[in-house]
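Please predict the structure of the following assembly.
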Amino acid sequence: MSAVAIDEAKVREIVADCLDLEVEELTLTDHFIDHYGADSLNAIEVLARLEKEFHVTIPQEELANMVNLSAVLEVLSRANAR
Amino acid sequence: MNEPQRVVVTGIGVLSSIGNGVEEFTSALREGRCGAGPITSFDTTGFLRTFGHEVDGFRPEQWIHRLPVEQLGRATQFAVAAARMAVQDAGLDEQELAGLRAQITVGTTDGEAAELDKMMAESVAKGPEHPADQLVAGRLPSHQLALAIARELRLPRAVPAVLGTACAAGNYAIGDGFDAVRSGEADIAVVGGADAICRRTFAGFSRLGLVSSDFCRPFDADREGLLTAEGAGVLVLETLESARHRGARIYAELLGYGLNCDAHHPTAPDQASVARCMELALADAGVKANEVDLVSAHGTGTPTNDITETRAIREVFGDNPPRTVALKAMLGHSMGAASALGAAASALALAHGFVPPTVNHRTTDPQCQIDCVPNHSVPADLRVVVNNGLAFGGNNASVVLGRHDEELVR
């Protein structure tokens, strides 16, 4: 298990920025693609920014799971610290 | 308006990870050589993947005699060297060349981005107040890729152009030269693509998760992605009449090309648009789908490309499509050079009667229903080959080449 402390506000800020949203527009459960019109490249940007911010490695296969903010937090919680 | 002229390929210049020069390249295609290995041009520390395709044994001064080699970046050196090889291969001497109206068009993805990488690394290391190396800065402009060819080959009447249409750029350049020659605007065209391997593009593809851990395996069930590469492919095009008049050796006839851009998605190809591009090329060539014997696919070995391209091919050619090979298994993805190398290989396949294989192949993906000619080349009596280049942003370009046969009445 990861020993990484996850700052939820920071994750929200990164995701909102990658999706070009205001922080308050971003809910835990709304779907990135269906609701916010994101695409796979936005998801890669989220992944890359999280890796840098939290010093973790997120496997590329997790991209498919990162469908909303709640799922991103879950993915991050099981990511391995570097 | 004059009747459009028939256009033929009479010279080929090649730099690639499987061999430099037309002879070595031809035998490598026949043998199914793979040019992959650990990248040495830059430090891959920290990257998950470390393989690529690099050009070995390139000595620029062997080909570049007039321009100071140190003033040219690696991609420009590739373009100039391949152009010199191509005009020599076409049997054109400098006196003949000097009188010709030439179209010089070079396609590229990265231009001199590798030089820019170096400059940035130095700036980071030494601080922003440290002045940039003027020599390196002078290598950066992308127009050099074509302009340097005109200067080195002393072509005072040349029109130089560089096209930055990403991974389809080589075919775009060939199409440009084809138009210039068939319309009579130019006597010859020296056209193709060139790219040098660079960290920026390697990092980008790595981050997109598109780079293979070992080899590129197009159409394979277990394919992981592409390997970035470098190289150059340059063709000399002239009218059939001019080639006959000179008694030049003709590799193939350039029959037509098609271009389209759908801007559907940043990276993913669009099936309908890829199919439409091949149809445009066939219509321009005056060739029916059932007359095509071989498709040289874009075939990057990424999960998405190979499925989408296969489906597009089946859409155009029906349930019994021609053999479809992916040269990137041997060559890697040499970006702007890729489709130019593909066109060179297509012309050689037509001239010598063989199909180059899709190497590194184990099991064909059931979602890629084509005969990819796995691992071993086969002799084949080819008449027409379609060569695809599909780029990010939905930039597609297909070129159609036909066997040249003096007795064949078309």
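Chain B has two domains: 7-246, 257-402. The interface with chain A takes residues 207-209, 265-268 of chain B (CB under 8 Å).
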